[in-house]
Every structure is written in structure tokens, then in C-alpha cells.
Write a structure and sequence with these properties.
With about 190 residues, the protein is of the alpha/beta class. The chain contains 8 helices and 7 strands, in the order E-E-H-H-E-H-H-E-H-E-H-H-E-H-E. It is globular.
Length: about 190
């Protein structure tokens, strides 16, 4: 202990100003905690606003996915503190799953604020637009925004869409012919 009460090998600022591990003068490896992901920080604000998630909400048996796609109804549910929506996001954060929101899901400023604080907002590219048009032709009466959401989820092998409109999205997923594309209801 130093005279000031600090441990002898207290962490020194990194020479480059970053948070990367480095060796101090006595060649002892030191590090600082990595900053949390933006989704983890957003979850913390939800806990502050609505309280912790009940254990049962996190215990749901859901398949592993590498991408979680949130539609407009999921963003609205997160804004209200919906437990199931929060649990899906918490599981994604815990398993380092990428969270994305199609730009078409940003229906208002609140949706935009929520999406930008926890996910990657992705633009609709021409390939997704063509796929959405095909899905709309294969599922008459389907919503174009839902078709774009499904198209956005087809970029990976195992993705899931979080929505309050499960039946509508499942019709489009069936039309897409993607067995590893899941629809999680909230």
C-alpha cells in the first residue's frame, strides 16, 4: 500500500489513452473492464425505469440465433417496458447476438431513439426490396413493412424476429422458405 492508501500496482492510464490491457512499470498485466455494448447499456436503463426482469422471463426455451431483428411493434413494446421484449433483448445481449432494426421500423422519434440505443439500424438494400416484393406476391394481403422485416432477417443462417404480430410474420417466413428463421412473440 502506498501512503495514500492505493495498492502498489494500481492501474496506470494506458500510454495510448485507451482501455486496453497493458504492462505497468513492474511488468504486471493490468486491465480495466471493457465498456458495455450499447444494448447492455440500454437494458440497464430499462431496469432503472421498470425494475429487474423476473427470472421466469429469462428462462424461456428459445433457440439460439445469431441475429435478432426487432420490428416496430417490438420497439414500441420496449418503450413501454414489456417484460417479454426485454427478455428477448437480454438473452441476445447475454449470448452476444447481433440486434438489428430495419430502417422501415422507425415509425416515430421514440422508435428511432430506442433502436439507435440498442441495435444496428439497417437500411433496405435492393436485394431485400426484391425479396420483400416476392414475399408480398407469395403472401397476398401481407404488410409491406413486415415483408421488409422478414427480408432483413434472411441475411444470416439463424435469425429471429421479435414482434407482436406473430401470425402475420409467420406467413411471410413460410413464404420465404427459411426453416431457421424464427418469430418470437411478445
Amino acid at each position: 500500500m502506498s501512503p495514500e492508501g492505493e495498492p502498489e500496482h494500481a492501474a496506470e492510464p494506458s500510454p495510448d489513452g485507451g482501455d486496453a490491457p497493458f504492462l505497468d512499470d513492474d511488468s504486471v498485466a493490468t486491465s480495466r473492464p471493457a465498456p458495455a455494448s450499447k444494448a447492455a447499456r440500454y437494458l440497464a436503463t430499462l431496469v432503472d425505469a421498470f425494475g429487474p426482469l423476473p427470472a421466469m422471463a429469462l428462462a424461456a426455451d428459445v433457440p439460439f440465433v445469431d441475429t435478432l431483428v426487432l420490428d416496430a411493434s417490438a420497439l414500441a413494446a420496449l418503450g413501454r417496458g414489456n417484460v417479454r421484449a426485454r427478455a428477448h433483448v437480454a438473452r441476445a445481449v447475454g449470448s452476444l447476438t447481433r440486434i438489428v432494426v430495419p430502417a422501415t421500423a422507425l415509425r416515430d422519434r421514440a422508435h428511432q431513439r430506442i433502436a439507435e440505443s440498442l441495435a444496428d439500424v439497417v437500411a433496405v438494400d435492393p436485394v431485400e426490396a426484391r425479396l420483400a416484393a416476392t414475399l408480398l406476391a407469395d403472401a397476398p394481403g401481407a404488410d409491406p413493412y413486415d415483408a421488409i422485416t422478414v427480408a432483413a432477417a434472411t441475411h444470416t443462417d439463424r435469425a429471429a424476429i421479435v414482434t407482436m404480430e406473430k401470425d402475420a410474420l409467420e406467413r411471410l417466413v413460410d413464404a420465404a422458405g427459411r426453416p431457421q428463421l424464427y418469430v418470437f412473440s411478445i
